[in-house]
Records
---
Amino acid sequence: MATTYGRVVPHLDLDALRGKLIVIEGADGSGRSTQINLLKDWLESRGFAVEAFGLRRSELVSQELDQAKKSSVLGLHTLTLFYATDFADQLENKIIPALRAGFIVLADRYVYTLMARAIVRGAERQWLESLYSIALVPDAVVYLQVEPEVLIRRAFQKSPTLDYWESGMDLGLSRDMYTSFIKFQKLMQAEFKRMRSVYGFEIVNGNRSIPRIAEELRKKVERVVEGVVYGEITDDGREGGGGWDGGEGDVRGVGLGGGRGGASGDGGREGGTPREPREAPAAPPRDR
Amino acid sequence: MVHPQVAGKLIAVEGLDGSGKSTQLYLLERWLESEGVRVYYTEWNSSQIVRMATKKGKRRKLLTPTTFSLIHATDFGDRYERQILPLLQAGYVVLADRYMYTAFARDVVRGCDPEWVRSVYAYAVRPDITFYFQTPLEIALTRILSGRPTLKYHEAGMDLGFSPDPYESFRAFQGRILREYEAMKSEFCFRIIDATRPIREQHYEVREIIRNLIDLPTFMNAVEAK
């Protein structure tokens, strides 16, 4: 059964979520988008319906958030809350409906990036953990780690100028953008490393070639998604078995909110014999 | 949470619509000004940057209890980080027409987890004094509804589905809000003012409480030396 990191948004039935949530985290230039596109193609070729999620794409506040980001006048807590609004809007109107319909949701970043950015800028960890305790615990989280020196070269391949925020220029780490970029990315990586032990996600070496990374990701994702197609439907309509191995990469049962309950220790699903394929998922509502 | 030490004082008013709290805050502001106190007034839901998003969300009915809560928290955050906190640090007496307790009441009535809502606002300082203008439901309702106002969708709590009639919905909504305020009054040490009494009597009680709790001369602008 799906769980959250401690708090459940009103009117949400976690039991009804049959799809899988897979999160790919990583800096700009880590190959995130490339790998997500490859995963999407691969999943779709195998008959899975895929829904994409990404930050700053909510109907509610994405435009306003873009504007606020450009003017860079918002304080740390305000910007964090603005992002949280964007996240919650998409959680309720995109991620949850898609999971309910049995989709695989591929998330291009998730709350971890939002938390890491805010922590690096000085927000309290406890505050962030509680704020984002409404987030669903993903079925898998992969962090693509790439050396900052490689990231910066990839950034220049895409654009002639560095991004203000991805360079952490607002932090005043250095006046020159190159140094600021390297320092900021190192701080972010340190935070992700720390989060790895808290949330149990996997760090994938993103310095390697695209096909090699893709292959590793497919293996991880395959373990997660098998249950969606061949999961046994029990009497109460819930998934009883499947290919979930509950081992490496199992992020369930890790409490964001410091064990305040709710994030139950669903440490491993019982293995069941795969039987009937599940019915084809219905399309989730996309826009209201 | 660790809050920054501030030189100023924060005074908030809370209560139902129709409790007369805004009138009282206005009178308080006038009094403090006349005493020469450095005073600044701020009200709920007034941040320019977030306003557009809030308006759109309300107009197009995009808001769920959670996003309703978060977008108001964002608005609060902007006012807090760019006005309230710096003003307090600069030694002002800041008067807030509604503060985080309004969110605690409204968001919980809409179904949000009470502890979650409290944690969202945990980074912000608590007021030095919170006046709660306590009003029986019928009196507050009569004050608001006798003028046959046009109630906005969210203002009437229509999103909660109590009733398709805005007035009926508003009654039910305000009743729930009142219950939340009553449950919070001891948790957050509200100073209770009986809002059924004459306006002037209430105001003098407010003055008295402030004189006892705040050393006003500290916040007065320096008188020019002769």
---
Amino acid sequence: MTMLATLKNGTGLTNGVDVPSQPQPLAGFGNLLRFMVRRDRVRAPIWVASIAGVIAASAASMVGLYDTPAKLVEYAELAQLDPALKAFAGPGHGLDDPTLGSVVMNEVLIYTFVIIALMCIFLMVRQTRGEEETDRAELVRAAPVGRLATLAAACVWVTVVNTVVAVALTVSLLAFGLTTMGTLAFGAACWGIGMVFIGVAATTAQIASSARAANATAGAVLGASFMLRAVGDLDNGWVTWLSPLGWAQSIKAFAGEQWWVLIPMVITSAALATAGVALSARRDLGAGLMKQRPGPAEGGPRLASPLALAFRLQRTALISWAVGLALLGFFFGLVADQAEQMLESEAIAEFFAAADVGSPTELFLATMVMMVALIATGYTVSTVLRLRSEEIAVRAEPVLAAPVGRRTWAIGHLAVSIVGSIVVMSVAGLSIGLGTAAQLGETGNVFPVLGASLSMVPALAVLAAATIAIIGWFPRWSQMAWLGVAVSAVAGLLAETLNLPQWIRNLSPFEHVPAYPAAPFELLPMVVLTLVAALVAAVGLFGIARRDIG
Amino acid sequence: MSIAISLEDVVKTFGSTRALDGLDLEIATGEVHGYLGPNGAGKSVTIRTLLGLLRQDSGEVRLLDADPWRDAVELHRRLAYVPGDVSLWPNLSGGEIIDYFARLRGDVDTARRDELIERFELDPRKKAGTYSKGNRQKVALVVALSSSAELLLLDEPTAGLDPLMETVFQEYIISMAAEGRTVMLSSHILAEVERLCDRVTIIRHGRAVQSGTLSDLRTTTRTSIEITTDRPAGGLESFSGVHALRIDGTSLHFEVDSSALDAVMNHLVPFGVRSLVSQPPTLEELFMRQYGDDLIAEETEPAP
């Protein structure tokens, strides 16, 4: 063995094959993989435990809620008529002859797919493009590490996490006594959707030149998959088959399993990962496939304050969120008329006549507004968190070394979050209203839905304020701000499924917003939420003003 | 003489690390002050405390007769800062960033900005994400040097610049010093410090270990002497201030403590001095003595 080879083995960075004339694109794979496990040793278990925990808790609660066949039939009848449920929960495979398994699937299936896809995207991008954005990837690649080793190790590592999630889900559902075949199909579909989005992220991480953009592009693919299958499910059409989420739900767990849908998922995953590898083998380190254009030689006169800079930095994000939610909202609006079908069921008609929840259409619209708001929490919180990433990247330092107060600096980003939330919710609300108007041929719902959307803003502001408070007082734990999003999502989407006690639901600011137009509008909750947001934000700003920066 | 910067017994801890451990520092108005120390000595922590980004645990910090923590915003109108590791927004062009900071400061001098961009050969249209380390550094330098700030806080400002650009930087500092502006220059480039600075402070482990003008510092250390005499000179071994003596016939090479210089020269003159080369200690030697405890211990022991 040559001395060089001994040295290499000493640093542990080769696979020990001493053939210097070959390119060795995977050299260093094992060490990179071990290092990824080390870096994700907290993050990955949190993902696995939260996903498996919420789903297991949902199953546990539903075992109690639907303990007689009559209750299952009652649920299935409503679910098959409710367009909101179809849009968010899928077509309801197996609800013709409901079992506990098919009812649980109808409640949690799509959400589980979405959260697993998000997990795979975030973990993949973090280990690939995220590293490349810093100088760390350069150091790694300067060691005897092959060109493809990082991407390959990331794919393998996230596949391991994805597999653990799928197994954990399967085991926990089996523990609640769901039938074996259906549970296995559910686990397999979860695994398959994770694999598809590992492939998606492996590709977007090569195309985009920043982790933010790579996450956003992969997230857009997920959003499109969601929309396509929702369109298909509501129209009972072929459109569902254009979506990986559509394939996954078509495994028909607990409803006559169609195992073959795993094939397109695995093929897509492999094809996308191969595409990622091919792109990665051709491009320069640090480069994306989108060319950098030169910018202006001078700054515009308006770029003169931290607020202006914050808007400039977040412009693309704001436009993307607004466009995405506008599309989603318009689609929701188009299908709103299906809500009236629910009255075909006598039981439901009686329910609507007795309960004070407005018409089915109004209830549907209120639900859709809530959905849009829950998605918009992603914009609201990530925008405020930019404050912390600016600090970590040492870009806050020169700004604060200029005559700029810390509060002014922080309020700039907070303002982008709040104003952006107003913009996003207005656009989304208007789109829901216009979609409804286009379908029903009347514009009566446009303003109520716009109003309902804007009434979500104080709740979004509470999350923004909570984020500022965490950044101000516990800067190292800033990512905990996502807990606010998680609590709101669980309380908003799974409160009934989980049979959550009211005090937990009350932790979500959205719980306090009246479900206008299904419920009468109330001003007081808006005022209270706004005051809470202002107070919490003030506490956060005080924290930022008194702590060390950096 | 008014004082621009003063730190008295300043302590700053991060967990169990004492980054500043009773630091004393005084910089007079109009002075160019070199701030030296090994990596991790606490140089950047000092500057970030002066900027009000960090708050000291104890001790007194005054900057331009104000409290850098409480009066940060007002003070920042009067100073400019160049960090050692400049991080910029990758999507903005260099020109946009330069103008942004100028507008934040509220003093935009377009002519001087354009002049600096030209002198530093910076392409302001390029996105900051494509800049090299040196070019990012230039962006921060253009911002600071085009300002009318009365105080410049420079934390290794030329790290990453090529020698040509370093010269441009030095020219600007010399002319700004001539205008009476105060400069605090933390640097590892000793030739630069030697050329620009009136006074120097060396810190180690968060404490100032030496402070003064360069000639003050030189008196605390040794001069190296190379001398040829008519007759072989003897007896130098008995001087305690003489080190590293090497005798080569009538030529002598040795280092002598500044305090013993006078006595040694008097001893040698009777032997008939034919040629004499004397070298004052370079800043590098001063520096090495202060930095490398262990190194010095090794070197001083075996005087042959």
